[in-house]
From TrEMBL, chains A, B:
Belongs to the FPP/GGPP synthase family. It comes from the Bacteria. InterPro entries: Isoprenoid_synthase_dom_sf (IPR008949), Polyprenyl_synt (IPR000092), Polyprenyl_synt_CS (IPR033749), Prenyl_diphosphate_synthase (IPR053378). GO terms for molecular function: metal ion binding; prenyltransferase activity. One of its GO terms (biological process) is terpenoid biosynthetic process. Keywords: Isoprene biosynthesis, Magnesium, Metal-binding, Transferase. Its cofactor is Mg(2+). This is Polyprenyl synthetase.
């Protein structure tokens, strides 16, 4: 029998897929090829970890899923745009993503560039839709939070640091600084944006913020372990590319065994942060397990 | 003696330069190279036509320049990001912009990609700053307006249509459809966002919207004439590249003489739309002249 958690994740994934399919422009209106490529980039793939975190955080603050789903879609679109640009020849030059040819391979490079650009715009369009939070001023703060998590002091900045580090030896502090930007900022935004759709107290914000920071790092540690150990077929994207690109990773710094332990420590820290929130944080706890125990 | 209009444009240009310099992250904080490249892409160049339109539209609705300047900066950052991505090898592959090497030439391609991405995020960060409009709900609508003007049914969509049209013969209707998206959407956003910082009545919105659509097209007609006639040195960007790229333009469709006449007709239409607004629309009228009479 399917566990309650599995049923919940599947329901969330179906919901976010539906919202994304509705909010992405249809591929029969102009510019058709761009719209087709945007839908190709976003729909039908991925674990939707960021939307799951947003829904779980919304549970803590009593947010309505009908509102959280738009915040979740906005974050997922930012994530999707970053993958499209990241895979381009000027960056990682990768041909495979989520088991399918990457956008610049399936379409072409100019289209991939515009797909990423337009997905970012669409994320802010959706996050600014009327009525996502109880007050318009809260929602403006949500827009600013996502913009900062995406920009040069968030995700895009993390990618710049990553590029600058290729072939360099980093210590753990420098590696974590990179990941806090590259992956962590958007994971944190997922949690906080989901929570902001409900009634978020200051102590709850502090707890969720700490949880999100730990989960963001744990997510990256696990990703590094997966990249080092899994096959391309299982992963749905090119495996072993960090080592091939001579990129520093948790595995290259700590070894696989110690990296796994680090992921478990981060999970424990994340869950400890949730203690004051009681049973409303159940899905967030389950997601912490899910992130760390991803099978491969 | 400097004309009153020249003094006004110079004051607006100095103001927007100051706001952009303040809101762009300093190049001495990490990631330094990305921040340096963002500042390189944005500061010290361009006529700032979009900010000028925002300030002029703010005059109509009694908006405070201290508020309009942030909306103006947001639009200018979207424009700047589009130039950086447009110049990349995957798109127009251009080496010169505003008389300087383009970002991917001065820095590198991955940096140019991230600069564009991060400038777009920064635009929404700034537009969501507290207190730009009288009501937070108005400001949310402003965020959505800019997102739509930038995205696949606005500027990015126009670029996709432009790419799809290379080497094709278009009629005037198809050419205008492309430009309404590629340039027109952001010009329209400049005018409406500036106006939304004040008190915008429905009749004024309709008038400004019509003005903006005419000016957006006029701007593009003049750009095509400039591209066909000016030298690279005068233009500060590669001249004659539309013809070299076999791109349809107003000049290729209408010839230079008829294209100039079309620009004058559009200016007349734009100014007629402003009639109900009286003297408060003076700067918008002067900008219509400025756009059409750019010297070359």
């Amino acid at each position: 029998m399917m566990s309650d958690f599995s049923a919940w994740t599947q329901a969330c994934q179906a919901r976010i897929e539906h919202v994304l399919a509705e909010r992405l422009p249809p591929s029969d209106i102009a510019p058709k090829r761009l719209h087709e490529a945007m839908r190709y980039a976003v729909l039908g793939g991925g674990k939707r970890v960021r939307p799951l975190l947003a829904f779980a955080a919304g549970d803590v603050t009593g947010a309505a899923v009908e509102q959280v789903q738009h915040a979740a879609a906005a974050v997922e679109l930012i994530h999707a745009y970053s993958l499209v640009h990241d895979d381009m020849p000027a960056m990682d030059d990768d041909a495979l993503r989520r088991g399918k040819p990457t956008v610049h391979v399936e379409f072409d490079e100019p289209t991939a560039l515009l797909v990423g650009d337009a997905l970012q715009s669409l994320a802010f369009d959706i996050l600014a839709s009327p009525g996502l939070a109880q007050a318009a001023s809260t929602q403006l703060a949500m827009v600013q939070l996502l913009a900062r998590a995406s920009g040069s002091r968030g995700m895009a900045g993390g990618q710049a640091i990553d590029l600058a580090n290729v072939g360099k030896s980093l210590d753990l502090t420098e590696l974590e600084f990179m990941h806090i930007h590259k992956t962590g900022a958007l994971i944190r935004a997922s949690v906080l944006l989901g929570a902001e759709c409900g009634t978020l107290s200051e102590p709850a914000r502090t707890a969720l913020d700490h949880y999100a920071k730990c989960i963001g790092l744990a997510f990256q540690v696990v990703d590094d372990v997966l990249d080092a150990e899994a096959s391309t077929a299982t992963l749905g994207k090119t495996a072993g590319k960090d080592a091939a690109n001579n990129k520093p990773t948790y595995v290259s710094l700590l070894g696989v065994q110690r990296a796994r332990e680090r992921a478990l420590e981060l999970r424990a820290d994340a869950c400890a942060a949730l203690d004051p929130l009681g049973p409303s944080a159940r899905r967030l706890r389950e997601l912490a397990d899910f992130v760390v125990e991803r099978t491969f």
